[in-house]
Fold these 4 entries.
Entry 1:
Amino acid sequence: MIQIALMLVLGSGLLHSVWNLFTKQSINKNVFLWMIHLFSSALLLPYLLIELDRHPLELEGYTLLGISFIFQIGYILLLSKAYQHGEMSQVYPMMRGLGALLVPICSILIFQEKLSAIGWIGLGLIVFGLFAIAFYGMNPKNMPIKAITAAVGVGVCITGYTLADKTILGQGHMTPLALLEISNLSYVVTLLIPVLISRQIKQEWARNWKLILVGTFCSPGSYFLFLLAMNIAPLSHISPIREIGTVFGTLFGIWLLKEQQGFMRIMMSAFIALGIISLGIWG
């Protein structure tokens, strides 16, 4: 089962980096994110309604969903801000790195999970590599404060909704597919007003309709694979492994978006990969 979870998480990380690349390339980040989740929400809404009709939630379930929903709202709002003010190869590892650090620690405290000594070393390599990629070559006098602040906020929100969703699944309140739809709806509701104010829906669709259609499956598909992995493996193990997406994201940012500090960021990506291998095999 651990091997299956590992494959699911690796696939999740790849898809995550792809839709983040698309978001960075979009005209209006809010409009793009709204459209890819609007289409996936429409596809999954009937399933959610059927599940809620057959298995109504109790108060505890709604409370946990509310907590997850709030963190998802913060995530999507801050994500667009991070990409508006910072480079993908910089802010992506920063926000993922904080989540990679906080989620395992909180999982050990809340869910009584454990990591081996090698697992802790692997986690350390992942976190070190992530933050090294983010901050290497940055002039302290010219730090993009808005990008850093938004990225830190994203990392905190990732931690919050991941822990809430793990609890929801672990207590059997919802299936992964229904929980995914809750995530989609949080994005659609949160971004509706900024999108309408922007009046750029037609412009975004005309220029990026292919990326929007692919993103419709990549974004929810990424989190769906991760939710499936949550059901069969400890969160403290699989959450850092998902940061393989940062390796892909860094390479995409350097090779496709022509962002700077390529060689050193690739070297730091090797530390992340080594940490992932250590955690996945011996964690």
Entry 2:
Amino acid sequence: MTRPITAGVDGTEESLAALDWAGREAVRRGLPLRVVHAWRYAESLATADRTTQHAWASEGTEQAVRTVRERHPGLEVGVDVVEGGAAHALAAAAAEAETLVLGSRGYGRVVGFLLGSVGRQVVAEATRPVVLVRAGGKATAEAAGRDVVVGQQGAPEDSAAALRFAFETAAARGATVRAVRAWTLPPVFAYSPGSLKLLDEAGGLEPYEKQALADALQPWRERFPDVPVAEHVEMGSAAQVLLSVAGGAQLMVVGRRARRTAVGARIGSVAYGVLHHADCPVAVVPHD
């Protein structure tokens, strides 16, 4: 089954920026584009029945899609106008998508993204990658060759999904993957004889972290030999280190552990921090 690039639209400037981004990505990947708009029947509009309100929603969505069709005449575009809650409709659409693209307001690294309740819920519950795009700035001005920055944490398998997404995206764009691994000094009681032996063999903490990043990247370098790779290892919190190199990014990719807690699904601290402070589009990739 060919999964589409799916864009959620609601008529706002941010969602139109997301639709534009999704259209270009679909062309790059050779995938169809699916556009989803969720609407709710408003009983307060006594002069308009459900059929009329659905027609209004459909007309507004078609107007948004018309520009994409004109800009990419060869692109296969499907449109779904569904009645119901936006979060539920978009989460369902994400399950069938290669990538779901949403709009989000934001004003740069100080204020960052203003991620609304729908965006938070969809990002937290989606089983497929979700890209957050905001109007203006780097969302609509992607310079060729700018980096796709991706965070790598833990063992190779922990970040395989995010690395795969980053390499596939960079390959489609002719961009460089800048892989970032942050590390901190562990508390003394966290050291064990086994870990101390590994650190001693690696020559210390920083060389150990550099080797861990190199090991995680190796299979993806082999799979994508034409994608340039830059490695960045720095001491600090993961979100802060990622944001420190975001100035050269056309896209930031972070992982999110797909698990539910007693209080429901969560975005995760690293993804949350990047989403609220990056000034480029951010892809959140779930993993087990």
Entry 3:
Amino acid sequence: MKSKSNISQGDLELYALGMLSEEERMAIEQALSDPEIKAELDAIEEGLEAFAFANQMAPPADLKDKFMSQLEEEEEKPVIPLQPKVEKANSNRYWLAAAVSLAVISSALALLFFNKWQSTENQLAIAMQENSVLAENSQFTNQKLSAAENSLALMSNPEFEMIQLKGVEGSPELLSTVLWNPDTKETFLNIGNLKSLDENLQYQLWSIQDGQPVDAGVFDLDSSDYLIKMKNNEVPQAFAITIEPRGGSEVPTLDQMVVIGTIQS
């Protein structure tokens, strides 16, 4: 009896297709007493059956009439004994097996190339997305660089006075800077190391003019500019920053002052 190790690769497939010689077929049938071989043959037959059903085609509607007409014609002809052509039959069987194998291989290759194409398409989409992110980062970096250059130009401009606002009692470590142009009245603020606030709160800059606080604008810490343009100020003697409700206040909350600085005359 043939063991599984003695059965050549493809023998079971050829057996299922009826393409083995009598001797080979008997050897396989003897080996089918092995449950493992029998189970493998059953799986092969189920696969071939599924493939056949998946690719079946309905016969033409007039096929039966043509067949019966041809059969009647053949009955009228003398019968000529035919010599069996085992070699041709076997050859046809091998061609059938080759056709089935080619169909299965073609389907597998089609699936393989589809998966590879889909993988390549996904990789291309990822690469394009990464390229887009790099472009956005590059644009953001250029904007930051441009803002830094503009801020540096303002800070080194002799037409602007630089006023340091130092932390008051309770927050001595805080520091901000105001740039003020006496001619144009333009005012810019560098927020320094001010701390983050709750969403319902906001910082507000005040200029002290003739002893009275004047609103110079509110701001948040999430600005991407190194210098924030504030409201113009006429003749300030000092600047201060307080913490106010979001949107600002009409008068400063003095117990919420964080930094203050005077202009040197």
Entry 4:
Amino acid sequence: MKILIATDTYPKQLNGVSRVLEKTLRELTRRGHEVKIVYADDFMTFPWPGYQEIKIALFPGHRLTRIADQFSPDAIHIMTEGPVGIAMQSYCKRRNLRFTTSWLSRLSEYVSIRYKIPVRWLHGLLLRFHQAAAQTMVTTESMAAEARSLGITRISRWRRGVELDKFHQVKSTIFDGLPRPIMLNVGRVAIEKSLDRFLSLDMPGTKVIVGDGPQLNALKRKFPSAVYLGVREGEALTECYSAADVFVFPSLTDTFGLVNLEALACGLPVAAYPVTGPRDVIGDAPVGATDENLKLAIEQALLLKREDCVAHAKNFSWDVATEDFINNLVATKVEQPAIVDY
């Protein structure tokens, strides 16, 4: 197929949506599909206030129309609800084309937290955006239930995977000399990740933050005893996972959290709040602990076996996730049955 994917976050940003798209693009290409990504850098942009690393497309409609017409896709998928996604949806409506969307982040909650906009207003916009699609893809059953509660009716699952060849247990001395246990968090350092809930805990050991983002400097000033390593990728990130004792995921808003799978693949148990994302990743397996008391969750997770974490991560495959995506796509045009004159 010729597949056109529209997104506001790809390819240079370090976030879950961009990483999902990167893996999916690789798998789709490997299967012989021709994929065109339309993203913010295709247009004039300006930085999102407070998130300088996020570029917002400025009036993408005209150029997007030219790109889409020239590519003439068999299927169109809209990954995000930003200006590029909205422009692509408008294009599809003008051309009378069917399309799919995905609900991969709680953009409504993020905007509400930062800009104090009532979340119910934003949920109304979210419903209108996704209800126009032939299918809205969500990651978990918990997210499917949330989508239905908002009024989104055409829902399909798009599961997640982990690169087991990249994320696995390795020998690492990166945290040697630091007080144990090593409590690790990896991800974007932003207010919606609730990192202050983690860093403010009174616990023995060392709290380590891997990542960058708009809240980093404020957290360094407020919690100077934590270790801040900045962005780590590839083998350096795998070493961090492998050398830590517990992965702490304090976010209350993530829809999944790929970093949880990466941690498990490296033998690192997860401690989190009992919310969508970690709850769906962990399930009933003895690979993590969720509790409204994050300190208690960490203490429980530290007792779990690393080999169980690795075994659980093997249940998540990008091959299966990509098959989900392909099966959920719809043809842009519905073939009209031939009229036979008897």
